[in-house]
TrEMBL record:
PROSITE patterns: R3H (PS51061), ZF_RING_2 (PS50089). Residues 20-42 have a biased composition (Gly residues). This is Protein shuttle craft. Belongs to the NFX1 family. Residues 741-806 form the R3H domain. Its main location: nucleus. It comes from Culex pipiens. Residues 115-162 form the RING-type domain. One of its GO terms (biological process) is negative regulation of transcription by RNA polymerase II. GO terms for cellular component: nucleus. Keywords: Metal-binding, Nucleus, Repeat, Transcription, Transcription regulation, Zinc, Zinc-finger. Residues 1-87 are annotated as: Disordered. The keyword Mitochondrion does not apply.
Length: 849
């Protein structure tokens, strides 16, 4: 087809050139070349030259002008472009109306099918594989590689539709699957066998087309279909799923099997009978409405549980039975039924009682009826005279023995509630029942097996029902209930047909999940029965909570993230920004007072140069709030150093200045002169030398004076002993002084933290990973500080952890580097401050080597 289109295009160009008089013309003075429809026009007399007239072959042979300008590219005529555009538009309209099968056939004929794995065109002679779900055509080798690389326990997914397949394709078959390795035939569709398709995808009729790609067309076979009531039949195509309904009444028998359906002809089951029946109780006092069912039609009477109260045959007394079926019976006082006195010892003379209302004669003998009391072999009898009512209570006692044998005693017959041989004690049985879960707890128990009469009520494996069997040992059996409805997966593709046992899980489905997802990314999981879909793990580009930075590796389900930087959002106070790490939601954590800022005030105090540090507040800082900033105070010579709060330091300074002011006032009273700036405190800034010198300070001052007087260079003024560092440490310090300084600084900080700690007995520090020689250095240095050191982990990740005890660790008087410098003569001496002893020194100097 491409060759034919190319030939048609060449013929069309030749016709256009012939109709326009050729393409090149001989010029005059300029010697240029011109094209019709191009850029220049030649003189008319020159265009008419030549014996052939308008553009003959002879004129074309004579045209050989020489021009220095390059020849411009020939442009296509506008008419040809419009024709091609119309053809492409027509072809696009035809393709848009084609089915998937026709589109695949067109693409196979023109070799435009592209493999989704390798992105190469599928050739007619190559082995292919077609997905049975989306009908995409791929290379067989590419499909096999794809399946092997992405296979899991559930199978492998089609790269186009994500349909899961169990088996990996190995062989090349035609589209209908009848022929293996089909040969390419130009007269047939590529990769087809040329025979009838014969597939039965949606119905029982085979496809009548030749072997083809894509889905089979709708079945065109004609079948007879009946309407819902079955009276009308109509021929329809097999592929048509329309329901047939006539205009007649359905008239199918309803569930009561008496009434019929009065709806119009419909598909499916008829509704239940909506008629109601009126049932009457046996005594005729109550009536109720019931639905029309087979069981309600069979039983038209019921018991209202009230007294019958119907007139007996004597027409003088009423029935005392509960509402019952059948006749009430004869009156119990009828003369035909009562033939003797109440005790039965004297017969009634015939004719003495003529109706049930006549009194029953009573004799004067003892009643003698057996009472429920007494032993089983010697029952007590009534000692009263013949009487109509029940016998009076017995005044005797009965020997009672319970069933279990726990009770054996004499009980008054009045208190005896049962027979003597059926007495029950109050002792509860403590044995376990047959289920081994419950105790018997029955009073006066005589059971041997102790059968549990409770219902099990344990949840069955189905999770919906409970076991209704008697309580038993072991696990419950499976739920015996079944459902006669189809059980489908979420998308409806997989079906389990009834009967379906209760508790059956939804069938597994290999189709992609069809639920609505919060994102638009491709679904990578199958249809599932769980209420929530797995989170989408596609990497997306998201900003952090505070919009500080953007990352491209955030899972879709996460939404956003914390970058770890300070939030820096302005707080409601307007003076601070949020210092929390990048977070979501509001910056204030106090839900009760979200507008209250909890940060410290950063304003400078008026009394000192420190920050306020009080909770954020409006207006000026409170002057009465003491400053808690730590400042370093020293003695006059600088030997003693302590850390105190600014508030305590100010109080101490005011105390000292007050004492100085008092002494100055005394000096003024004696007639001496006083510097006003010292009294008013405006001459110089507040000094931090508020500590008093001790004996050690005096010793150092004396040593400094001796060193100056004796002109000793670089003297050791300290009274402390020099630490005895090992030869290994001295040698290593000369080789790597930077490491020695780092270890000394870390250990010094560790000891200071341990000494300043109030609630912890010790502090620890973990050194980075080191080799054996450096770990040896750390261990030796720790011993000089009184610090315990232990090495952890295996090589090459072994490191040392140092632990300083608050009471056992110390700071050496000199570091290892200072000892080496002193040994080498590189020492630095501070000139003594003579003001510490009340003398004035105009200058100070430093002496060094």
């Amino acid at each position: 087809r491409q060759q034919r289109n190319h030939q048609q295009q060449q013929q069309h160009q030749q016709q256009q050139q012939q109709s326009n008089g050729g393409g090149r013309w001989k010029g005059n003075a300029g010697g240029g070349r011109f094209r019709n429809g191009g850029g220049g026009r030649g003189p008319k007399n020159e265009r008419e030259q030549g014996p052939m007239g308008n553009g003959g072959e002879e004129n074309q042979r004579q045209v050989e002008p020489v021009s220095s300008a390059p020849e411009r590219k020939e442009r296509r005529p506008n008419g040809y472009q419009r024709q091609r555009a119309r053809q492409e538009k027509l072809e696009a309209n035809i393709i848009s109306k084609c089915s998937q099968r026709e589109k695949l056939i067109r693409e196979l004929d023109s070799c435009r099918v592209e493999c989704l794995v390798c992105c190469e065109l599928v050739r007619p002679t190559q082995s292919v594989w077609s997905c049975l779900n989306c009908y995409h055509i791929l290379h067989l080798n590419c499909t096999t590689k794809w399946a092997n690389s992405s296979r899991s326990d559930d199978g492998w997914r089609c790269p186009a539709c994500q349909n899961v397949s169990k088996e990996i394709p190995r062989d090349y078959y035609c589209f209908c699957g009848k022929q293996k390795n089909p040969q390419y035939n130009r007269s047939d569709v590529a990769h087809s066998c040329g025979e009838l398709c014969g597939r039965e995808d949606l119905c029982e009729h085979p496809c009548t087309l030749l072997c083809h790609p894509g889905p089979c067309p709708p079945c065109q076979a004609m079948v007879q279909r009946s309407c819902g009531c079955g009276r009308t039949k109509k021929p329809l195509q097999c592929s048509q799923k329309d329901d047939i309904a006539c205009e007649a009444i359905c008239a199918k028998p309803l569930n009561c099997e008496i009434h019929t359906c009065q709806q119009k002809c419909h598909v499916g089951d008829c509704a239940e009978c909506g008629e109601t029946l009126e049932h009457e109780c046996h005594c005729g006092k109550q009536k109720k409405q019931v639905t029309c069912t087979v069981s309600n039609l069979d039983n038209t009477r019921f018991s209202c549980e009230a007294v019958c109260d119907a007139q007996l045959s004597c027409n003088k007394h009423a029935c005392t039975k509960v509402c019952h079926a059948g006749p009430c019976g004869e009156c119990v006082l009828s003369p035909s039924l009562v033939t003797s006195c109440p005790c039965g010892k004297q017969a009634i003379v015939k004719g003495e009682r003529e109706s049930c209302l006549d009194p029953i004669p009573i004799c004067k003998a003892v009643c003698g009826k057996q009472l429920p009391c007494g032993s089983p072999g010697a029952r007590h009898v009534c000692s009263a005279k013949c009487h109509l009512d029940e016998c009076p209570p017995c005044n005797k006692t009965t020997m009672v023995k319970c069933r279990c044998g726990h009770m054996d005693q004499q009980i008054k017959c009045k208190q005896l509630q049962t027979r003597a041989d059926d007495a029950r004690c109050k002792k509860r049985c403590t044995r376990m029942r047959s289920c081994a879960k419950h105790k018997c707890n029955q009073e006066c128990c005589i059971d041997y097996d102790h059968i549990c009469t409770k219902t099990c009520s344990q949840a069955l494996t189905c999770g919906r029902h409970r076991c209704d069997k008697p309580c038993h040992r072991g696990s419950c059996s499976t739920c015996h209930r079944v459902s006669f409805d189809e059980l489908t997966c979420e998308c409806g593709a997989a079906v389990i047909f009834p009967p379906v046992p209760c508790g059956t899980s939804k069938p597994p489905c290999n189709k992609p999940c069809s639920r609505q997802h919060p994102c638009s990314h491709p679904v990578l999981h199958n249809c599932h029965a769980e209420p929530n879909c797995p989170p989408c793990v596609v990497l997306t580009t998201q900003h952090c909570y505070g919009k500080h930075e953007q990352r491209k590796t955030i899972p879709c389900y996460q939404g956003s993230f914390s970058c770890g930087l300070a939030c820096a959002k302005p707080l409601p106070c307007g003076r601070h920004t949020c210092i929390k790490p990048c977070h979501e939601n509001g910056c204030q954590s106090n839900a009760a007072e979200p507008e209250v800022c909890r940060q410290s005030c950063t304003k400078t105090r008026t009394t000192c140069a420190h920050q306020c540090k009080a909770p954020c507040h409006e207006g000026d800082c409170p002057p009465d709030l003491p400053c808690r900033e730590m400042v370093e105070v020293t003695c006059e010579c600088g030997n003693r150093k302590q850390m105190r709060t600014c508030h305590d330091f100010s109080n101490e300074y005011r105390r000292i200045t007050s004492a100085q002011l008092a002494s100055s006032m005394q000096e003024m009273q004696r007639g001496g002169s006083v510097e006003l700036s010292d009294i008013l405190g405006t001459g110089k800034p507040k000094s931090n030398k508020t500590l008093e010198c001790n004996d050690e300070c005096r010793t150092l001052e004396r040593n400094r004076r001796l060193a100056i007087g004796l002109q000793i260079r670089n003297p050791d003024l300290s009274s402390k002993l020099q630490p005895n560092y090992s030869e290994f440490l001295r040698t290593y310090a000369k080789k790597d002084p930077a490491l020695i300084k780092m270890i000394h600084d870390r250990l010094s900080e560790l000891v200071k933290l341990a000494k300043e700690s109030k609630h912890q007995k010790s502090r620890s520090f973990s050194f980075p990973v080191m080799n054996r020689e450096k770990r040896h250095v750390v261990h030796d240095m720790c011993s000089m500080f009184g610090i315990d050191s232990v090495a952890y982990d295996a090589e090459p990740n072994r490191n040392v952890v140092a632990t300083a005890d608050r009471f056992k660790s110390w700071l050496p008087s000199m570091s290892l580097l200072e000892v080496i410098q002193r040994e080498n003569g590189q020492r630095r001496v501070i000139v003594p401050n003579l003001n510490a002893w009340g003398r004035t020194a105009n200058s100070s100097s430093s002496v060094a080597k």
